[in-house]
Write a structure and sequence with these properties.
Layout (H helix, E strand, L loop, with lengths): L8 E3 L1 E4 L2 E5 L11 E3 L6 E5 L7 E3 L2 E3 L1 H13 L3 E5 L16 H7 L5 E7 L2 H4 L2 E3 L4 E10 L17 H24 L15 H12 L11 H31 L9 H5 L5 E3 L5 H8 L3 H13 L6 H10 L2 E6 H10 L3 E3 L4 E11 L4 H14 L2 H9 L22 H33 L3 H13 L3 H13 L1
Parallel strand pairs: 5-8, 5-9, 12-13
Antiparallel strand pairs: 1-4, 2-3, 3-7, 6-7, 9-15, 10-15, 11-13, 11-14, 11-15
């Protein structure tokens, strides 16, 4: 059988599809579970802790990542072993008198030769036991329920459109206002140098297109074909833009009304709706307690004040499932919960990177050999295989409610393209209208068409200065 050294007799072991399983003797959780007998060689006593998926009960047996890891290490190094569960179900932390609890305490007192579990490497533990190289890397993150409630943002009415989209709408508004003004100034039907009243000033042009956004309109309306074309294109743009805005706004209100906006530890520490906590006496609590970063230390004070610690990871996950609680723990353990419970989600932020390692008594000669064996398993891909084996995702293919995202420029490219083509066509038609008038004036005045066109443009875009000079010249001649 895989994992059994040659020439050794296997006792108390069962083969199964998932790998080597340890058998509980007499149904007890703290007695010897697995043993190899080996011609009088010392049998290593290994302590572990029940935690999914590292060590789990399967009827009268134990299985999991750590059970498989022990089997692989025994095959690499050729040792026999027995496994038992830690008596107090604790990882290990010192009390006021300096005595250690949990697996670390058992290793220190000689009750176990090794502790194989998701045991975090810390400076405090390194002072009292020997730690191998980590067999798994992880960091701290937090777990939330997807349906947890939170406070709404003050500017939530801007959420249907992304920032780039709002910038695009503003640019479109300015360009359209300028285009309406230019078309009205260029087209002979909208503006004549000799008339006093001119409807489409620059201010009125922007007021006119603002009225379109409110679906009310603001007269007078354009009379020329070019002006009407620009006006019609802007109205179509404004109506479709409002349709997309209100549709996405409604989707967000119904689909995301309970979707939490807490993404980082900073967000978690600044709100008071969702309580949060971590495992009592674990390395995660020690990180927050000793951290010099104000955010993390403030979170530790909050947990101390609320007494929001949990006894183990299973209790923390259960509280998250009940709602309005965030559980802080190692990201690798939280990923397993997310894979099993599709209503949970893990924050993308991971801090305080650390590793899981095997603990042995100080001065133990086993540490060097175990470190080399772990590195070999890592290089050969065995550790990666075990990770994929024990972290299956049962949420694959589960249809989740789709959260509404803000619309961006890429979603409404066609609408902006339509507006751009309409504005360009309107300016072109206005120029053709002015060119038609310039040709008529050129025939009547017996001068070139270009000269008549330049005169018309000068009268329209030099602010009436030439017209005033001309009027004063005519008066002096009279």
């Amino acid at each position: 059988m895989e994992g059994v050294p040659a020439g050794r007799e296997l006792t108390g072991i069962s083969a199964c599809r998932t790998g080597v399983r340890a058998i509980l003797s007499r149904g007890g959780c703290q007695s010897v579970i697995v043993s190899f007998s080996s011609n009088g060689a010392k049998e290593l006593s290994i302590t572990t802790i029940k935690e999914d998926p590292y060590t789990m009960s399967q009827g009268s047996e134990l299985e999991g990542y750590c059970i498989d890891l022990i089997s692989k290490l025994s095959k690499e190094l050729g040792f026999s072993y027995k496994v038992h569960l830690v008596k107090d179900s604790r990882y290990g932390s010192p009390d006021a008198s300096g005595s250690w609890s949990g697996m670390i305490g058992e290793v220190m007192r000689g009750e176990a030769d090794l502790a194989v579990a998701p045991l975090t490497v810390t400076a405090t533990r390194e002072q009292v036991v020997e730690m191998t190289t980590p067999f798994m890397q992880t960091g701290l993150s937090f777990l939330l329920n997807k349906n947890v409630t939170c406070k709404e943002r003050h500017f939530g009415f801007l959420s249907p459109f992304s920032t780039n989209m709002w910038i695009g709408v503003l640019i479109a508004f300015v360009l359209t206002g300028l285009c309406v003004f230019l078309v009205a100034r260029i087209s002979p039907q909208e503006w004549e140098p000799d008339t006093e009243s001119r409807s489409f000033t620059l201010v009125h042009s922007f007021w006119y297109i603002t009225g379109a956004l409110t679906l009310q309109g603001a007269g007078p309306h354009p009379k020329a074909v070019s002006g009407r074309l620009v006006s019609a294109v802007w109205w179509v743009f404004a109506i479709l833009l409002l349709v997309f805005y209100f549709a996405n706004f409604s989707h967000m209100q119904h689909g995301n009304s309970k979707h939490a906006s807490i993404e980082t530890f900073e967000d978690l520490s600044k709100q008071d709706v969702i309580d949060y906590g971590t495992v009592e006496g674990g390395s995660s609590k020690a990180f927050f307690k000793n951290s010099l970063i104000p955010t993390y230390h403030r979170m530790y004070e909050h947990m101390e004040r609320r007494k929001s610690y949990v006894a183990n990871i299973a209790e923390g996950i259960a509280r998250v499932q009940r709602g309005n609680f965030a559980f802080i723990g190692e990201a690798v353990s939280l990923d397993l919960a997310v894979a099993h419970y599709c209503t949970l989600k893990r924050s993308e932020e991971v801090v305080a990177m650390r590793g899981y390692a095997i603990a042995a008594p100080l001065g133990s000669p086993l540490v060097k050999n175990l470190t080399v064996a772990i590195l070999r398993l890592s290089e050969s891909g065995v550790l990666t295989y075990l990770r994929h084996k024990w972290w299956p995702n049962s949420c694959v293919g589960v249809q989740e409610p789709q959260s509404a995202d803000a619309l961006g420029l890429q979603n409404l490219q066609g609408l902006f393209l339509l507006l751009g083509l309409g504005l360009g066509l309107g300016l072109l038609i206005a120029l053709l209208e002015l060119l038609s008038k310039a040709r008529g004036l050129a025939k009547d005045g017996k001068k070139s068409c270009c000269s008549a066109l330049s005169t018309e443009l000068a009268q329209r875009f030099r602010g009436g200065a030439e017209s005033a000079d001309q009027e004063s010249s005519d008066k002096s001649k009279a």
